[in-house]
Design a protein that fits this description.
The complex is a heterodimer of chains A (394) and B (400). Chain A has helices at 20-34, 58-65, 84-100, 122-136, 189-199, 217-230, 245-254, 260-279, 298-304, 321-331, 334-337, 359-369, 372-380; strands spanning 3-9, 41-45, 48-52, 73-80, 106-113, 141-142, 149-155, 159-167, 179-183, 203-210, 238-243, 283-285, 312-313, 383-386. By secondary structure, chain A is α/β, with parallel strands linked by helices. In chain A, helix 3 (84-100) packs across helix 4 (122-136). Chain A has 13 helices and 14 strands. Chain A has 2 domains: 3-167, VC0802-like (2-Layer Sandwich); 179-386, Rossmann fold (3-Layer(aba) Sandwich). Chain A starts with a strand and ends in an 8-residue tail after the last strand. The model of chain A is unreliable at 389-394 (pLDDT under 50). Chain B has 2 domains: 2-8 and 266-394, Aspartate Aminotransferase, domain 1 (Alpha-Beta Complex); 14-259, 3-Layer(aba) Sandwich (Aspartate Aminotransferase, domain 2). In chain B, the strands form 3 sheets. A 7-stranded mixed beta sheet of chain B has the order 2-8-7-6-5-3-4, sandwiched between helices. The radius of gyration of chain B is 22 Å and the shape is globular. Classes of the chains: A alpha/beta (394), B alpha/beta (400). Chain A binds chain B through residues 212-214, 216, 245, 248-249, 252, 257, 340, 344, 347-348, 351, and chain B through 316-318, 320-321, 324-325, 328, 342, 391, 393-395, 397-399.
């Protein structure tokens, strides 16, 4: 019986020793979780992960795999019984497809025989398949040096014939590195930061600080659609919308003007840490890049992270803006980030913010805010939005 | 929800809606068709044209129906290109005089004509948002072919001195022996303040239907008989060749009907509007931090401002924040002009009147209509009085 599958190659997971099983399980789980509505089966055999699917779902499954962390590459495969006639028939069908797609006439066959009890050797199988294809398609030509396409065949408990390879994002499967909280604004940087940490196996929730009436509903919708794009990689991501205005009011009331921005960042870190505790997350992720703005100098970061109480991961810290933008374009967040709904946080930006703040002074200023009360109020009114698969990346 | 954004678009007039529905359903034939149904449509078209002309103190032939204010404005400005086609104009020596407070459909169109080689002179208003006729006089020279100044500004409500500008243009034309065309964008004036194009002495005036309760997509251009206006678009010869395209008869009839409703009620409405504007202005000024744009208006009622439009701000609170606060309490208002509230240059008009850009960004436009009740104005003022001060206190710059 003939079946269609994707063979998934998972790169660095293969290098893990005793924990390999756990990583592979996480990979299988994250593929299954992303395709809840489709009849797929994900299984591992002979140290390879296969995804079996209905031919009608081919595009959906391929698009999912191309956005599944841990997948280095994948290729379509057909699985047939090992008798040589069945293998020949499957090879003819693949060749017919390649010819129809205009992939060229020069080919070679590469055969691996893992099942050593098979009556033919790899070389004999390759010869049989070559003969079968040349007989069926006289326009074909064998060229072992510069083929247009290669017929890959593996003989195991079944025979597998592989098509061309497509790339995945690589990295580690979602959740294999635990969970983090992403501070998501509507800007270019933070979605990229989230994507980069997710690539290293972090499951993410996002936190957005909404300051009505200073920020508009449009700004919130923009963040929701950014979260929606990220959720194509991170199924089940939750967006926590924090009504931040009470905290701003407190800062306005008690802080020196030049300290406003830093204290705002500090309070955001604090809120995100409290949400992390609720969600069992072990770190925060921000889009900070060293020196980009006043609150992203080393002294500023040294202070704001004291309010986090968790590791703060800043994957963009050494990246230039153009490098960040090129990732944003690749993952499909740039266009949304670039929409013009700016919030009015400029109202709260001091004319001359501190650039090299003193850690002790800032810690005292933070304590002087007595921010726990407005932060508690904000947390109580925080909304959880399931962004799910509302918007797919283009 | 209380609608206080009439200057952006008025709620539909019930009579105009009925008219549009009836004409759509029954008089669907093309007015250019020779058969009975076509002739009936043509008769109805003629009647609507005569009605609107009568309301404006104009001849029926002086009314050209268009798709709205923007098209009317564009057809006047682009008439310079049509003249070029006829060989009457060489762009290098032709100047357009207009103002810094025009709607973008005049302002941007005039700037675009610079790309064709025309010269453009942009006259600034004084601090009350009104363009002095003497400033127009200074901008006129031998090369000037067109002057375009709006009648009522859509952001501040400032009423421009068009009759005096017409006199300036007339004197200039007489002295130089070259006819200068005078156009006014009267979109915010029709049905809002009494005027007739002939009384103002203009050659052309742009009008729009949806600002007074007709549907979107219908407007008109008044063209004085004998005015040397060439039209750029060509086609089936409708509107005496001045605006080709099958006539939007339901829109035209609805427009004429809405204009009839508004203009016949105008003397009464205007008195009430003056009282309501006064009430609104006094109420707004009682809120700490309120500023009228322009501030000259704080003194009380004035014929120099349309009573239907009031521009206010609570610096440093951005106008969009005030709009959201008002909406939260059930009142719909706009920042500046609705047509440009998404653009970066949304502060052009107020900056021209001397406001700093950050102050101009604070403007909120409150625009009312004949059915706006005084109690609604009181409720709006009360809502702002409650919502604005605490939020403004949060955003106040410490330096300011």
């Amino acid at each position: 019986m003939r079946e269609t599958l994707f063979l998934v190659k998972y790169g660095e997971i293969a290098l893990k020793k005793r924990n390999r099983g756990a990583f592979v399980k996480a990979l299988k789980d994250s593929i299954r979780e992303k395709l809840p509505d489709l009849a797929v089966s994900v299984y591992e055999t002979w140290h390879r992960v296969y995804v079996r699917f209905n031919p009608a779902d081919r595009e959906a499954v391929a698009s999912c795999l191309s956005r599944t962390f841990g997948v280095v590459s994948f290729c379509e495969a057909v699985r047939v019984p090992t008798d040589i006639e069945a293998v020949e028939e499957a090879a003819r069908e693949l060749a017919r497809g390649y010819l129809a797609a205009g992939r060229g006439a020069r080919f070679k066959a590469e055969v691996r025989r893992a099942e050593k009890s098979y009556p033919l050797t790899s070389y004999q199988i390759a010869c049989r398949l070559g003969d079968a294809l040349l007989a069926a398609f006289p326009e074909l030509k064998v060229d072992v040096n510069r083929p247009d396409w290669v017929l890959f065949v593996e003989i195991r408990e079944h025979a597998y014939l592989y098509g061309p390879e497509s790339g995945g994002p690589g990295g580690l499967p979602t959740g294999s590195s635990g969970r983090g909280i992403l501070l998501l604004s509507g800007g270019i940087d933070s979605p990229v930061a989230g994507w980069m940490m997710a690539k290293r196996g972090l499951a993410l929730d996002a936190v957005y600080f909404h300051s009505a009436p200073f920020t508009s509903e449009k700004a919130r919708e923009k963040v929701e659609s950014l979260a929606g794009i990220l959720s194509a990689w991170l199924p089940g991501m939750v967006l926590h919308v924090v009504p931040f205005t009470p905290v701003l009011a407190r800062i306005r009331e008690r802080a020196k003007e030049e300290e406003t921005t830093l204290l705002m960042r500090a309070c955001m870190m604090r809120v995100a840490s409290l949400i992390a505790a609720q969600r069992g997350a072990a770190c925060l992720v921000t889009g900070e890049s060293l020196g980009q703005v006043a609150s992203q100098t080393i002294e500023s970061m040294a202070f704001t992270e004291t309010c986090a109480g968790l590791p703060v991961l800043r994957p963009l810290v050494g990246m230039n803006k153009d490098e960040i933008i090129s990732v944003a374009r690749r993952i499909g967040t740039f266009e949304v980030s670039n929409l013009p709904y700016e919030d009015c946080c400029v109202l709260f930006s001091p004319a001359h913010p501190l650039i090299h703040p003193s850690l002790d002074k800032m810690k005292r200023a933070y304590a002087g805010l007595k921010a726990d009360e407005p932060i508690g109020e904000a947390l109580e009114k925080t909304e959880e939005v399931r962004v799910g698969a509302r918007a797919r990346a283009p | 929800m209380i609608y206080l954004d009439w200057a952006a678009s008025a709620p539909p007039d019930a009579h105009a809606l009925d008219e549009a529905r009836e004409v759509s359903a029954l008089l669907y034939a093309n007015p250019s068709s020779p058969h009975a149904a076509g002739r009936e449509a043509a008769e109805r078209l003629a009647r609507a044209r005569a009605n609107l002309a009568g309301l404006l103190g104009a001849e029926p032939d002086e009314i050209v129906f268009t798709s709205g204010g923007t098209e009317s404005n564009a057809s006047v400005l682009l008439s310079l290109l049509a003249k070029m086609r006829l060989g009457g104009v060489r762009p290098r020596v032709v100047k357009i005089v207009t103002t810094a407070i025009e709607h973008s459909s005049v302002f941007e169109q005039a700037r675009a004509l610079e790309g064709f080689g025309f010269a453009c002179s942009i006259v600034r208003p004084d601090q009350s948002g009104i363009v002095a006729p003497s400033s127009i006089a200074e901008a006129l020279d031998e090369s000037t072919a067109l002057v375009s100044v709006m009648l009522v500004n859509n952001e501040t409500g400032a009423v421009q001195r068009i009759a005096e500008i017409a006199e300036v243009v007339r004197v200039h034309s007489a002295r130089t022996g070259r006819r200068v065309l005078l156009h006014t964008d009267a979109v915010q004036a029709l049905g809002k303040i009494p005027f007739s194009p002939a009384g103002l002495g203009v050659d052309a005036a742009s009008l729009s239907g949806h600002k007074l309760g007709a549907p979107r997509g219908i407007g008109a251009l008044y063209v004085r008989k004998g005015a040397a206006l060439q039209f750029l678009a060509l086609g089936g010869g409708q509107e005496k060749g001045r605006r080709p395209g099958t006539e939007n008869l339901p829109g035209i009839c609805a427009f004429a009907r809405a204009a009839e409703e508004r203009l016949t009620a105008l003397p009464r409405d205007l008195r009430a509007a003056g009282e309501k504007a006064d009430r609104l202005i006094r109420g707004l000024l009682s809120i700490p931090g309120a500023r009228l744009f322009p501030e000259q208006r704080s003194g009380g009622p004035s014929e120099r401002f349309s009573p239907w439009i009031v521009s206010v701000g609570f610096p440093p609170l951005p106008g969009e924040v005030v709009v959201r606060l008002a909406e939260g309490r059930g009142f719909l208002v706009s920042t500046g002009s609705a047509c440009s509230s998404r653009k970066k240059d949304r502060t052009r008009v107020l900056e021209a009147a001397g406001l700093a850009p950050e102050t101009a960004l604070c403007a909120v436009r409150v625009s009312t209509g004949p059915s706006t009740a005084p109690e609604e104005i009181d409720a709006f003022v009360e809502a702002l009085a409650r919502e604005v001060p605490p939020v403004r206190a949060m955003s106040r710059g410490r330096a300011g």
